[in-house]
């Protein structure tokens, strides 16, 4: 199980980084999305992979790790998802504005000299 | 008066006064001077009030909590030595303020200099009273800072700017070294409290880090006290107004270095390293300073080098292994302050009344300003060490020490007395040059001003100081005796040596040395007298200019090195930067693996579930496909990314994280819609079969990028595997699980963490989201699409036969048109259900999966759905959306919930919870965290809608403008961030 998820993280990260290094802005945005999946999964996995662990406490109970999934990485990732959404939106708009200003969708705002 | 109040007033009053003087109008010369003088006098009186305690051998001490968790407190302490310095700082400060009132011209912004002087006085007082090493380093840097401002007071002249910058660079860098040294010292001792440090001399000297601490502290002390090889900043600091030079560069600032050396003398001195470093620096500085001083043509330059030389003498005394030498050093600190300050003031008077300080132009001022001449004569004689003046007595002590001190090697012991005599002879020579050059000789010609005596109040401080020189010189034991005694005792403790303060010790070797030095100095002056006027700089060591070295290194650091780094590492292009960052990350990760090894952890991996394998086979295919297609097939790539996102979402469900899955799903939808809206503005790019692009150029680059991507991907995979097969660090999770319900009042621990335990983080996060939403809105208000994106997309033209241009999105859509009729009806039905679901998610968030984020996203999705099927105009006719209002409400609610805790005198964002019985619905939890979560909800709704609608409106706007759009040659440069218009 751990192996499957590690490979998944590796593939997501590798694809994302490949796209980050591409010259077109859209590629960079897609790359960032893929990379953020990889990172979120990685942070999430630091709590340990638990299938079937309870996520919700019984009322009045002091939870223990034996019964419950680790809530801390989940809280971190939840925050990361929302912030990731916000930054993607900002990046998109900045890139669109840059495209409008410079007339190109190259990440440097001008086509590479051949 | 309680000690704490006294010490605190002493420290704070100058800073308050500095602030008050700083806000005075530019012309308020008398007010500012009166204020500064009053504060200096009050402080002097406060210092005097501490006299009984200190004279009895006691220590005034006040402690204030600062960082108790680190064991750090603000400690103010005043023992005999600190008292002596505090007296000097305030007493001379008062005299300098009086002097400055008459010296400064009314055209200068005079209140400013008094503000700086007071602030400097406060910093210096804080330095000498610091009872904690870190505090000492802090005030040390503060003195450097204010001395920078004071030297650069006449910032319209280049000399002042350069001198200030040089002093700041040298003493500031030394201060940083000192800070590091203090940290090392504190580490050795285990405490930063000065008293603990002063009680652990043996620990310090025997510690392996002793040498490091010593070197760092000496860097600080020697730069501050202008010791060789850092001496060169002091002459350049003479660009400061003369009162500043008199105060800082004779009596106080430069004495901070020797103050520290004396302070740490009992615990750090006595080793070979100390003797070599401190004694060596002092010896060289004393000789070089005195030698160069002879050849200075500027009165202040002469005094500056003489100060360097005398500081070298004090440092040399501190470097000797002798308690008596320490007493002599403290005594000379006092004496030097008195005569050098008065000489600076005299030089300032000459400058003020004649318009020049050049010894070659000055002459015969004895006739026009006889009184000043006599005062300067006495002070210069004290500097030269003439009997019956204070300089003589400390010089005799110095000679005695030079004869008897222990030296590391025998030859040095032989050199010391000769070096002492030589430096003393030089000081006679330059003192003679100062007096003879300025006051004697023929009538001066071509002076810028006609010389005359200054205002009598301007001369008053000089008179006081010269009186001190004479009194101490004639009756040392009766005047300075007790002060010197308890100051030295507070440093040395029980090791206090017996010494005798008197003018006459009988015919002995030191007396003979004095006579020889006096005679030698006079002879040297007579020999050199005529040649000095035409000489340019000191012979033999003319090339030894610290300034040139300093400037070269500054040019190297701030220009060549910076340029080199920019050329090598800097780039204006994104891709090389990213390559550097990723490469560095891979290297760092690889290095960690190389050094620490990489092995699987202690957990047995769970059996592989074929369903999950299948899920991630799809996910990996989606990711790779997106990477493959993102250039030419953007829509496909976007769909594939969405696919990968769904697999992530399923993974969250699989591994017991329902909250994450919910959030991921909703965010996925909104992100995809957002990117879809953006697609329309990107340039068309078609893959032409056969055209492989500039293949030769890019093949190498692509191979390199592929290697980076593969390396990073493999690295991430390996890292994840290693992390996952280890027992997670469970301490924090345990903490939250235990308290989630019992203290947070919610069974959904993730939500409780977000809105309660780590509520402040969430608050910060929603402010970021709000800022981002407003930023996108602002950017889009002035959005100008590129020329080739202005046309209506061809897909839309195909769909709307008969409709001209892009009115498709306008009133034609909605009910009555045949466009998407079935989805439209369904959406209208589903919309209320979605809103109810959102509220359900919001309210149950504390106990069950849900919460403000996902609820807000669901509302946003519902509204987007209406936009998509109903069209912009139809939706906006029926639904008055005010995203900014939502954002504002959200921020107010969340922050308000946090602030409300203050009303119950609890810390910010403390939450409160209870259960309430409602009819029908039953028992529901009522937590203040719920209000906070409602704020998050409102903000997410507002921010998401603002971004989406702003982007979607671009299409409408562009379509409307198309019919009249004549292709503009060059779009106006939009003014981003300017409100209005759009």
From TrEMBL, chain A:
Pfam families: Oxidored_q2. InterPro entries: CPA3_antiporter_subunitC, NUOK/Mnh_C1-like. Keywords: Cell membrane, Membrane, Transmembrane, Transmembrane helix. The keyword Transmembrane helix applies. It comes from the Bacteria. The chain crosses the membrane at residues 6-22, 34-56, 76-98. Belongs to the CPA3 antiporters (TC 2.A.63) subunit C family. This is Na+/H+ antiporter subunit C. It comes from Falsiroseomonas tokyonensis.
UniProtKB/TrEMBL annotation, chain B:
Residues 67-109 form the NADH-Ubiquinone oxidoreductase (complex I) chain 5 N-terminal domain. Residues 789-812, 963-982 are annotated as: Disordered. It is a multi-pass membrane protein. Keywords: Antiport, Cell membrane, Ion transport, Membrane, Transmembrane, Transmembrane helix, Transport. The keyword Ion transport applies. NCBIfam families: PRK12648.1 (NF009288). This is Monovalent cation/H+ antiporter subunit A. Residues 130-413 form the NADH:quinone oxidoreductase/Mrp antiporter transmembrane domain. Residues 620-684 form the MrpA C-terminal/MbhD domain. The keyword Membrane applies. It is found in: Cell membrane; Membrane. The chain crosses the membrane at residues 6-24, 36-60, 80-101, 113-131, 166-189, 209-234, 246-268, 274-295, 371-389, 409-432, 464-487, 507-528, 578-599, 611-628, 635-655, 661-682, 703-724, 762-780, 819-842, 848-869, 885-904, 924-951. Residues 825-945 form the Na+/H+ antiporter MnhB subunit-related protein domain. InterPro entries: CPA3_Na-H_Antiporter_A, MnhB, MrpA_C/MbhD, MrpA_C/MbhE, ND/Mrp_TM, Proton_antipo_N. Residues 701-797 form the MrpA C-terminal/MbhE domain. PANTHER family: NA(+)/H(+) ANTIPORTER SUBUNIT (PTHR43373), NA(+)_H(+) ANTIPORTER SUBUNIT A (PTHR43373:SF1).
